[in-house]
Amino acid sequence: MSTRIENVRRTLVAFVSVLLASCAGQGDDPRIPVIETYADIVLATYEDAIEAARALDRAVDELIANPSEATLAAAREQWKTARIFYGYTEAFRFYGGPIDDDDGPEPRLNGWPLDENHIDAVKLDAYNAAPGENIIGNPSKYPEITPELIAAQNEAGGEKNIASGYHAIEFLLWGQDLNDPPESAGQRPYTDYVVSGPDAEINARRARYLKAATTLLISDLESVAVEWRKPQAGETNYRVSLITGDVPTALKRMFTGMAALAEVEMAGERMNVPLLSSDQEEEQSCFSDTTAADLRANIDGIAHVYYARYTRANGTTISGPSLADLVRKADPRIADEMDERLERARAAVYAIESPFDLEIRADNPAGQARVRDAIEALRAAALSFTRAARSIQIFLSDLESLGD
Amino acid sequence: MHERNVFGVAAAIALVLSGVSGCSSKASAPVDELLMPRSGGAMTTDTSDRHAFSRPAPNLSVTERATFAVGNQFFNSPWIVAPATADARDGLGPLFNARSCDACHNNDGRGRPPEADERPISLVVQFGSNARGPHGEPLGDPIYGDNLNPFAIGGVAPEGSIRIRYREIAGTFADGEPYTLLAPEYEFIELAYGPLDPNTGFSPRVAPAVYGVGLLEAVPEEQILALADPDDADGDGISGRPNRVWNRARERFELGRFGWKANQPDIAHQTAAAFSAEIGMSTSLRPGQNCTQAQRDCLDAPHGGEPEISDEIFAHIVQYQRMLAVPARRNLDDPKVKRGAQLFVAAGCAACHRPTLVTAATSELGAAANQTIHPFTDLLLHDMGPELADSRPDFDATPSEWRTPPLWGLGLQETVNGHTRLLHDGRARNVTEAILWHGGEAERAREAFRSMSRQEREALLAFLSSL
C-alpha cells in the first residue's frame, strides 16, 4: 500500500491541476453527488468491517488467554458478525478497485477453497492413511507463525494456496465440517487452544496462527479503507480519482460491482457450482455452515449501492442521491423493473434456508428448488442492471470473464 | 492486385531459395485468407484486453453460458490437499507442478520458463525413452514417472527442480543487423529419489494456450490428413505427418491434435493427462495416483477418492475449454500488416501455418460446428531440426518433430500473459527469435526471413501481431 501511495504522490502536481479543471466543468453534473454518496457508503462499510474484525480480534485474544466453551462461542459469534459486514463490501469488487486491483488483498481476505490440510491437522477419513504435514504441526519448517508467514503462504509457489483470511479463521474456530449429524457445522473443541498437557506446543502454535490471521485481516481491510477515506489536503487516493475522474467510468464501476456479484459470483460460483457438483460441502463458509448468511449480506450490499442507503453498525444511516434516482429520472419503466427484480432477488435469497449445505443436497428437492429460484432471480436482476445502466448511457461489458 | 505484390517479394525470395519457385501448391494460400477478421468464425470475441483469451464464445446458448461459468470456476480454483471439508475439490498431488489449471494456463494463455531461482510452474519437464508402452506411448522414468514434479503435499518429498542456463548464440540478418538467440541447457537439481535412469530422455514444454481448442477439435480428421505429405511427394521440402495416438475411451488409434507433439486425440484426454501428471488429480480417464512403485510416501499419502474429480465436474471443465472464444484480428487496414501477410506467404510460412480450416457440420459443441476458421496451423508434425529436438519420442513423433502451433491470438500474448516467450520450451524471447529457431523443414522459411530487409521484417512482425 505504501508504494501505491508514494506513486500517487509523485503524480500529485499534475493531478491537482486536472482536478481543478474538472471541478470547474462538472459543478452541476447531478451524477457526481451519486458517486460521492457511493464513496461514503463504501468507506462506512469498510470501517464497519474493520470495527467488526477488531471485535473478532479481541474475542480471539480472550479465547487464547482463557480457552473455554464460552470464549470459543463468543469468538464464533464475532466472526459471524464480521463476515456479514464483509459480505456487504463484496458489491465493491469486480472492477479493479482497491479491494481487487492487481495488488489488492481480496485473495488474502476471502480466498476459497481453503487448503485446511496445509494449515492444521485434520481427521483421518475412510480411505486415507495419516494426513500429511501442515504449518501448525511443523515447527522445524515454520518456526515462527506470523502474519507475514501466512500472507506469503497464501501465494506459495507463485500461485493460489489459500491459508489466510475469513475462511482460515473460520476453520480455526469451527474445524472441519464432517456432517455428523448432517445438520451440524464444524465441532472444533475449545481444548484445541488449551496450552497444557502433551498438545501444549501445537495448541500454542494454533493460537498464534489464529492471532496472526486476525491481525492480517485487520491490516488488509485497513489497506483498502485508506483508499476510500477523504485524504489530507495535498494528497490523493482512489476515492479522489473516482469522484473527480471520468463520470461514466465511475458509474460503470458501480454497476459492474453489483451486476457481477449478482450474476457471476452469487448465481454462478456460489450457487450454481454447488448445485451442479452436488457436493454437500461445496459452499463458501463450509466450516461454520453460515453460507446462507453470506448470501443475504451480498444481496443487501447490492441494495446499499443501488439505493445509496446504508444503515451502519452504530445505527446511523448514510444516504444520498442514488443510481436508482438517476435511472428513475431517465426511464421510470426500467426503474420499476429494477425495483421489482431486486425485491424478488432479495426475497428468493432470504428464502434459502440455513444450513446451505443441506439445501443443495440431492435428497432435498425443495432446498434445491429454493437455490435454483434464487439463481434465476439474481440473473434476472443482473440483466436489469444492464438495462438500467443503459438507460443512463452506461454500457456494461459482458461479465463472464471477470472471474478469470 | 495482391498478386503483383506477392510476386515482387517472392521473386527476391525465390533467389534465396536456390532458384526454385517459392510457391508450391501448398504454400500458395491466397493472401486474402490471411487477413480475415473473425479468426474463430462465430466463436470470435472482440475483447482485446487481458481477458482476450478468456471470453465465452458469443454464439453460446444461455444454458451453455452457465456451463461455461461453472467450468471456469473449476479451471481457476486451486485443488486442495485431502482430506478436506470441500471434498469435491480435494486430492491435490501427492506430487504436483501446480494447484490449478490457471496457474500454468494463466488467463487461458501461454506459460513461460522459470526465471532464475524460480521453481518451474508453467514449464513441465516430461520424461521418456526409446522404451514404449503397449500403444506406443512414452513410458517415463522408472522412478520419477511421466514428468518432474517440483512440488508435493506435506509428508512427501518433491521430486526436484531444474536449473536452466542459456547459452548465447550470435547471428546476423542478411542486412548485417546482429541478433542473439538463447539456447537452453537443463540441469536437474535437488533430485529426491536418486538419479534419473541413464536411458531417460526428457522434453521441457511450456503450457500452451487454451482458447480455440473447441474449434480445432471440430476439424474433421480427413481434412487434416489431406494436408499431410509424409514423403514430400510434391517436393516442396515440407512433409507434415499426422501423429497417431491412443484414445483410451474409445480404445483405438486416432489422429493426435493437442499438445506440442500432437500426442492427445481430444480436449478430454489432454485435460485428464494434465490433471494426472501435473496436478495429481485422478479422473475416470486417468485413474490412480501419479506415483511410481518406487515412491512409497507418495503411494501411501492421503488421496481424495476415486476418481478425485467426478465425471460431472470433469465434463464441465472440458466443455469450458471448448467454449472459449478466439480473439478477433486487429489493424487489418494497416498497409504494413497487408504487406506482412504477403511476406508470410512468400516466405513459405503458410505451408505449415495454414491460414484456413473448416470445422465439421456436427461437433461436441454446436457453436463450434460449421465454422470457417483461421488458426494458422495444420495440426501436423514437422521436422524442426536438431536445435529444437528433445530426447523423448512421443507416439509417432520423433524428437525433432513438433506440431505446428496455432498462431491465432499471438499478438495479444503480451497483453494477456505479460511475456512474449515462445516455442515449446519458451526459449524464444519474442516472435523474431521464434522464427530464427525454425530449422529442418522450416529452414527455408527461416532463411527467407533472415534475408528480408529490416522494413520487410517489421511488416511481417506487424502481420503476426495482428493475429
Describe the structure.
The complex is a heterodimer of chains A (404) and B (467). Helix content of chain A is 61%, strand content 1%. In chain A, strand 1 and strand 2 form a beta hairpin. Chain A has 404 residues and is mostly helical. Chain B is α+β, with helices and mostly antiparallel strands and 467 residues long. Chain B has 13 helices and 14 strands. Chain B has helices spanning 2-16, 62-76, 101-104, 213-217, 221-227, 267-279, 296-300, 311-323, 335-346, 413-417, 431-436, 443-450, 454-465; strands spanning 44-45, 95-96, 123-128, 151-152, 161-172, 178-189, 201-206, 244-247, 252-255, 326-327, 357-358, 372-373, 381-383, 401-403. In chain B, the strands form seven sheets. Chain B has a two-stranded parallel sheet with strand order 1-10. A two-stranded antiparallel sheet of chain B has the order 2-4. In chain B, strands 3-7 form a two-stranded antiparallel sheet. Classes of the chains: A mainly alpha (404), B alpha+beta (467).
Provide keyphrases for this structure:
heterodimer, A: 404 residues, mainly alpha, two-stranded antiparallel sheet, 16 helices, 1% strand, globular, disordered N terminus, B: 467 residues, alpha+beta, two-stranded parallel ribbon, 13 helices, 14 strands
Number of strands of chain A: 2
How does the helix and strand content of chain A classify structurally? Answer: mainly alpha
Q: Tell me the Rg of chain B in angstroms.
A: 22 Å
Distance between the termini of chain A: 24 Å
* SSE sequence of chain B, one letter per element: HEHEHEEEEEHHEEHHHEHEEEEHHHH
Q: What order do the strands of the largest sheet of chain B run in, or round the barrel if closed?
A: 1-10
Major sheet details of chain A: 2 strands, antiparallel
Average per-residue pLDDT of chain B, rounded, comes to 92
Summing up helix and strand content along with how strands pair, one would put the structural category of chain B as alpha+beta
